[in-house]
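#lab-general

N.A. 3:47 PM
ok so I finally got the sequence cleaned up, no stray characters, all 135 residues accounted for. can someone with queue access submit it? mine expired

B.Y. 3:52 PM
send it over

N.A. 3:53 PM
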Amino acid sequence: MGTSDTGPGFWHQAPLMFVAALSLVHCKGLFGVSPRRCNLAPVQEYSQDVGMKTDLVTMNPSVIQRAFEDLVNETWREKLLQRLHSLNGSILWIPAFMAKGGKERVEWVNELILKHHINVRTAYPSLRLLHAVRG
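B.Y. 4:20 PM
back already:
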């Protein structure tokens, strides 16, 4: 991505940008909070690009199926646990009731959070809120 169409200072002035197509990163000075991560985006591997601090992480339940193989074995559960532990006090925003199978996957995640005493605060938007946002 060149700067010819955006101007030489674009990336330093832009309030929002996508980095490595994994997380939404914004200028802390404009919003006063650290980055938000979408769909449990990995942070550790990209920390030089996106930093390590996170305040809000979204997780569509389908991520459990696509990125963590529906937790079919201990290896996948451990990978999810590592990702959840890395949230370290963040808010985990889960639109749990939007898709078929979402409730079951959210229950799996909740069980892991409780069983392993993971330092995360969960938030579940209501369908009413989600419909209002979608319009």
